[in-house]
Amino acid sequence: MTTFAADVVVTLRPVINDPQGLSVRAALRQLGFAGVASARVGRLIELVLEAADEVAARAEVEEMSRRLLCNPVIEDFRIDALRALEPGRA
């Protein structure tokens, strides 16, 4: 077994209103960043898991994301990074 680290990003679907994103955009504009056209707020979930190989690790992370980490009605997810860790670096 190999230890893997995965970064899963969960975001609201584009058609879903994002009040936090609107607040961030407004605040950035008030701070003088007038060029900010939009902002969307999501969350980053960092996982460390054991798997036989990278293919198995990716499949597990996708299943975790579908079953728990993401609400498929209003959210999408993507795996931004999946990397093997050196032994002892979990």
Care to describe what's here?
The protein is of the alpha+beta class and 90 residues long. It has a single domain, classed as Mth169, Chain: A, CATH 3.30.1280.10. 31% of the residues lie in helices and 34% in strands. It contains 2 helices and 3 strands; from the N terminus they run E-H-E-H-E. Strands 2-1-3 form a 3-stranded antiparallel sheet, covered by helices on one side. The longest helix has 16 residues. The radius of gyration is 17 Å and the shape is elongated. The two termini are 13 Å apart.
Distance between the termini: 13 Å
In N-to-C order, the SSE pattern is EHEHE
Shape: elongated
Please count the beta strands (DSSP E, at least 2 residues each). 3
CATH topology: Mth169, Chain: A
Structural class determined from secondary elements: alpha+beta
Supply the number of structural domains. 1
CATH superfamily: Phosphoribosylformylglycinamidine synthase subunit PurS
Low-confidence stretches: none
Strand line-up of the largest beta sheet:
2-1-3
Sheet of most strands: 3 strands, antiparallel
Give the helix proportion (percent range).
25-40%
Any idea what the radius of gyration is?
17 Å
